[in-house]
Amino acid sequence: MASLLYRLGRFSFRRRKLVGLLWVLLLAVFGVGAATLSGPTSDAFSIPGTESFRAMDVLEQKFGAGAGGATAKVVFTVTGDAKLTGGTQTAAIEKAVAALRKAPQVVSVADPFASRTISQDLQTGYATVSYSATAPEVTDAARTALFAAGDTAKSAGVGVEYSGEMLAAQQGGASSEGLGIVIAAFVLVVTFGALVAAGLPLLTAIIGVALGMTGIQIATGFFDLSSSTSALATMLGLAVGIDYALFIVSRFRHELAEGRDGEEAAGRATGTAGSAVVFAGLTVIIALVALSVTGIPFLSAMGLAAAFTVGMAVLITLTLTPALLGFAGRMVLAKKDRAGFRARNGKMRFGERWARLVLKNRVVALVLSLAVIGAVAAPALDLHLALPDDSTASPASTQRKAYDQLSEGFGAGFNGPLIVVMEHASKAAAATAQQTISGLKDVVLVTPATLNPAGDTAMLTVIPAGGATAESTQDLVTAIRALPDIDGASLAVTGTTAVNIDVTDKITKALVPYLAIVVGLAFVLLMLVFRSVLVPLKATLGFLLSVAATFGAVVFVFQQGHLARLIGVDSTGPIISLMPIFLIGILFGLAMDYEVFLVTRTREEYVHGAAPNDAIVTGMRHGARVVTAAALIMISVFAGFILADDTIIKTLGFALAFGVAVDAFVVRMTIVPAVLSLFGRAGWWLPRWLDRTLPNVDVEGEGLTRQLAAADDDDDEVDDEELVAA
Q1: How many helices (H) and strands (E) are present in the chain, helices listed first?
Q2: Dihedrals φ, ψ of 485, to 5°?
Q3: Sign of the alpha-carbon torsion through 619, 620, 624, 630
Q4: What residues are paired with 106 via a beta bridge?
């Protein structure tokens, strides 16, 4: 592979105008496609095959299209001695309800007095507004009309707040990419000391993200993609795009320092650092594509879209980066070095000093690192998972105020009702079901059954005593699902708690095959790269340490609330159910990036004859500075997404930023050299039969080095013969 990439690098450098033009044309084609073929995003969340979502499908089929439309609750409250049933208050609420019925896209409005949705103290009530469209399809005009109509009741001293999925759909994300790019630019300038060298990785990363985003826009015309898909792809595309180009540019500068011309330097940089880029990119892509095995369309689509963006970043790094280096030439060097790379003053680099310190105190370094990670990971033992709802919204938001008012007026279970769907049900069977469920523990109320127009399907609403995430409510779902059929009618439970249970169960079942695919393929790839059994094993165990620490930090901040205000988290609660498998997949790919980049150079020195500890020191001397810069860039890009409004993106941005910090600085730059030193030569052991079986991909460029050295010797012999002849 190194030889192939060497030739690709030289070709891209030499034919830089052609390569640059091809990428510009591709970007133009994607841009036109995005403008003409794109469709709307969809935030519809479903997990096929689960009971809760099958019940939702039955509701939509049997009760009409309106059952699948968006809903909103308009919550009316009064304080003091006032009552909603007072003449002035009643008139104001009736006027608001009449205005709501005339709002765009509204199908029906349930009057709080007619539907008896007034609390016992007569101070809290709500009107349910049903729409003909799903939440993402509700127009801005319809939302504006909702607020305008409901607010008319305020003139009578009635408090008005709003909740519902259509309100969540209108939230936008903060433009957080810019902050990460600015910090990345600063890190690159400090690392390279040259604006041109700093600008190249930024330029290639932005082009890669642009291609990824336009590709995703084209895909929305053919597939249902979440609005969060673009944010995730942007996050990963920027981070890996900058990092991958950083390694090529850094190696190119090193080759120039050895006195090679630009084309040769570009070829060698692409052949060596480019090989690491390919395998690092493959681990990320495998981790993202493997999300498809979960059977959750939302995760699969996001994983595939992000994998496409990472793939574009790899291709651009291997072709466009050498081409741009051809245009830049020696401008990538610091100004003081352009006339001729000066010899170093012999001062030991930080990476070498750190490596020698770790190797000298390898046991202490290992024990201290494990102790720190253990302490940080401890809160993960308290991990609670759930889907986000209005209880985790900002306390200042109307959704959170409405949620709290409804809980206070109607009880904790009101905001998490259970919906029981009975197929092939008669009116008598539905009545029996109501009576049976009412006798179960922790049931506050079971509404009379509502039958569909055909009279063969019934729907009952169960109000539990506890909230949606309470253990008692989860037990109640299990108890209802355990009930036998009633007069031939089957019972299915949906609602927030039921969905949470089904999502958790689905993810738990998918986690083992997912990890088997991701870890198994990555282990094979790492064996190909390092020709070792222990190094891939160490890399995988190190990743588990990083994941444990990341989960602990996420629980500490987003669930327990410590330091939450410092990063703009206004409300805490259970961690999003999908976060663990999502985080494991992405962080695994990124962790393997640093393993490949840092340990590849160590392996390169070892196969060239260096002793194990000397190889570690040399690898750290050449790689630590660049890996540090790469990690800081990736942390900056991810941290920028903490500013996003979307809960998933905010949590994921924090988790990835923290996870990369732990993995790069604690695991890869401290634990890895300590463990490699303890392994000694055994760390690079591979059974002979396996060594013969595995193909030699030559990621460290050993074969390429021999090939180029032989070519140099042939050139020297020719020169000597010409000199003798002369």
Answers
A1: 24, 11
A2: -60, 145
A3: positive
A4: 131
More confident residue, 564 or 16: 16
Beta carbons of 377 and 89 less than 8 angstroms apart: no
Confidence of residue 170 (pLDDT cuts 50, 70, 90): very low
Of 29, 178, 596, which Cα lies nearest the Cα of 186? 178
Average pLDDT, the chain: 83
- CB burial of 591-614 (b: ≥16 within 10 Å; e: otherwise) equals bbbbbbbbbbbbbbbbbeebebbe
Nearest to 536 by CA among 399, 686, 427, 358: 686
- The 3-class secondary structure across 481-542, one letter per residue, is HCCCCECCEEEEEEEHHHHHHHHHHHHHHHHHHHHHHHHHHHHHHHHHHHCCCHHHHHHHHH
pLDDT at 8 (0 to 100):
92
Q: pLDDT at position 341, please?
A: 47
Domain ranges in the chain? 1-37+177-344, 65-169, 401-501
Please give the average per-residue pLDDT across 19-39, as a whole number: 90
Q: What class has domain 1-37+177-344?
A: mainly alpha
Residue 66 clears pLDDT 50, i.e. is over it: no
| Residue where the block lists tokens 């500890």 | 613
| Per-residue model confidence as pLDDT tens digits over 476-490 | 999 999 998 888 888
Is residue 344 predicted with pLDDT exceeding 60?
no
For 672-695, write each residue's pLDDT tens digit: 999 999 999 888 888 888 888 877
As a whole number of angstroms, the distance between CA 114 and CA 525 comes to 66
Q: Can you tell me whether residue 443 is helix, strand or coil?
A: strand
Please determine whether the domains at 65-169 and 401-501 fall in the same fold group of CATH. yes
Whether residue 285 contacts residue 216, with contact meaning beta carbons closer than 8 Å, is answered with: no
> Which CATH code for domain 65-169?
3.30.70
Please give the C-alpha separations between residue 618 and each of 348, 420, 598, 623, in angstroms, as whole numbers. 11, 66, 11, 8
pLDDT in tens, 630-668: 888 888 888 887 877 666 778 888 998 999 999 999 998
Distances, alpha carbon 492 to alpha carbons 137, 277, 433, 496, 507, in Å:
28, 50, 12, 14, 20
User: Residue 166: helix, strand or coil by DSSP?
Assistant: helix
Angstrom distance (rounded) from CA 525 to CA 284: 12
Evaluate if residue 64 carries a pLDDT over 70: no
Q: Would you state the pLDDT for residue 452?
A: 84
Beta strand 575-576 with 385-386 is parallel
Q: What is the pTM of this model?
A: 0.78
CATH class of the domain at 401-501:
alpha beta
Amino acid code (one letter) for 288:
L
Q: Is 103 left (phi over 0), alpha (psi -120 to 50) or beta?
A: beta
Q: Calculate ∠ Cα 67-151-418, nearest 5°.
A: 30
Query: Each residue of 120-157: pLDDT tens digit?
Result: 899 999 998 888 877 767 888 888 999 999 999 998 89
Are the CB atoms for 260 and 510 separated by under 8 Å? Answer: no
Which runs of E-coded beta strand occur in 57-180? Answer: 71-77, 106-110, 124-131, 159-163
For 60, the token pair is 């939509």
Q: In what order do the strands lie in the sheet with 124-131?
A: 106-110, 124-131, 71-77, 159-163
Percent of the chain with pLDDT over 90: 22
Residue 68 burial by Cβ neighbours in a 10 Å radius (0-12, 13-18, 19+): middle
How are beta strands 418-423 and 450-451 bridged, if at all?
A: unpaired
The rounded distance, in Å, linking the Cα atoms of 226 and 220 is: 9
